[in-house]
Structures are given as structure tokens and as C-alpha cells.
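Recap from last week: sequence in, structure out.
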Amino acid sequence: MKEIDWANLSFGYLKTDYNVRINFREGAWGELEISSSEQINLHMAATCLHYGQEAFEGLKAFRGKDGKVRIFRLEENAARMQSTCRGIMMAELSTERFREAVLKVVKMNERFIPPYESGASLYIRPLLIGTGAQVGVRPADEYMFLIFVTPVGPYFKGGFSVNPYVITRKYDRAAPLGTGIYKIGGNYAASLRASHEAHAAGYSAEFYLDAREKKYIDECGAANFFGIKDNTYITPQSTSILPSITNKSLMQLAEDMGMKVERRPVAEEELSTFEEAGACGTAAVISPIERIDDPENGHSYIIAKDGKPGPLCTKLYNKLRGIQYGDEPDTHGWVTVLE
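Predicted C-alpha cells:
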């Protein structure tokens, strides 16, 4: 293959050798199939195209200093996809079949897993779509589950450094009791315009308030928010926030470090009280927040007053990354080692 510049990889798509697929037909999942094609053949009336029956996940595999390959929290990704399937009426794939597919696709593309010292990783993208043809609005009777992988660098070009965010009231990412808690493409489509405007104004991402009252913090772009003060890790609780596996992991690590953890509604005014804050997710792990501007009210919440990531954000980031790469003990059983 063409020599890859591992140290300068972007967070984008790079063709690899194989993907894996499992089809659901006549009420049952079939055998796992291996494909070298980047294309899928879809009926023009497939429900994924017309009625949004589409779910995806994102997880990563890491090559450690010891040469071993570690996959982070794949069972949690399986469980979240199953929750999404229940939410939008799709056939659920069992955790065992999900695991089988993840391990197979990583193993078959092992040569694309970046070396330890590069700081890059192998991004794993499971996708589940309704392929059955429907004209009426109802669930499909056929589905395709597939996984492709691609090597990626840091989500933000600056890596682990502080970033500015901007509050938007013009747009909502998701409604309370809607689909915000599910990982579906429609939620991301709903964020594209706000994200484009935030980037054009020089921000890393948009910052959403709750759709009902525009009073409480919801999400940071496509990531969960957390704030730290008085040795307490605080993250919003809402019926429209995607349950981030990274955030769940950070909450556990914060407890391990002796911090108090609170998951509760967080009013916008509380932003001024945080000593540190970050956006967290699979892609960036933690993106420390420099400031959150509120142009509509002419206010700016300055969080990283020295322009640097805070000590607890840094400690949490290093601890989680250490577990992913095998540099820290995996005391919670989060990592699956590729045999």
C-alpha cells in the first residue's frame, strides 16, 4: 500500500482493505460476509433513504507500546446501538454478533492500525440501515449491518488544546422526548447549519441550550459537555442528550480520582462558576473549553483563563488515553485485546 504519514493523519476517510456485513431477512440475521467493495446496493424505496431508519456508532482500536491492539468499550457501543434500534424500530443485532463483526473487521485491516508513537488510531464505524422497500411510513422488513474502518488522526488539528465555543439559540439539535438520545444521522443533519455558522465565525463548535426553555446546557456540537468545580465533575442530564460512552468513562475515572460526580440539569449561568470544562466524545476524547461566547446577550464565559487545559481535564484525558493504549491498567474491563 502507499506509505501512510501516520503522524499527520487527518480525521477523515482513508480506504482500507475490507468491510464486513450482516443482512437481516425473513426475520433473522444471516452470516457475516466480508467485502472489499466500498459500495452498497440499495433499493430506491429503502426506509433508510425515506424514513430515516439509520443508526451508527463510532469506536476505536489502538496499538499499544507492547504491540497489542486494544478496542475500547465495544460492548457499550453494541448496547447503545441496540437502544437506538428500539427507538426507531429497527432489528437489533446482539452484542455477540456485534463483537464478532468488530473483531473480524479490525483483524482483517490490522495493517492500517497506526503505530503506538503516532498518536493516531483506527476508527471503527458500525452502520445499520433499513434496506427493505416501503412507501408507507412503517419499519422495514430487511436491514443491513456493516462496519468499515479507517485510520484517523486527532479530531481537532491542535490536538489536546483549548477551543472556543458559541451558544446558538437559532437552532435546536433535538427535541425533549425526541430522538436526541439515539445515535442517528438525522440528529447530525439537524446540526449542520449551526455547525457551519459556528465554524465560519471562528469557533470550534456550536453550543446548544435545551429546546424547551433555552435555559439549560444540552450539548457541545456533537459532543457531551462537562464542567469541573470544587473537585466535582458535573455533566448535564436531559432527555435530548446522546449518552456518550466517553463521558460515562470519564465519570467513572473522576470517581476513581476521588472527585464527586453529578449528572443533573445545568443552567447556562452556572458556566461562570466552572474552573474547567470540556466537550467529550470518541473522536477527540476531551476537547478542553477555552471560552463559551453568548453573542445574543453580549456575554463571554471565560473558563481557561490562562489559555491552557486545566489540571483535572489533563489528568482525566491522560488516564483515559493511557487505558486505551495499554499504558494504564484497565481496572474496569473496558478494553478488548485483539488476539
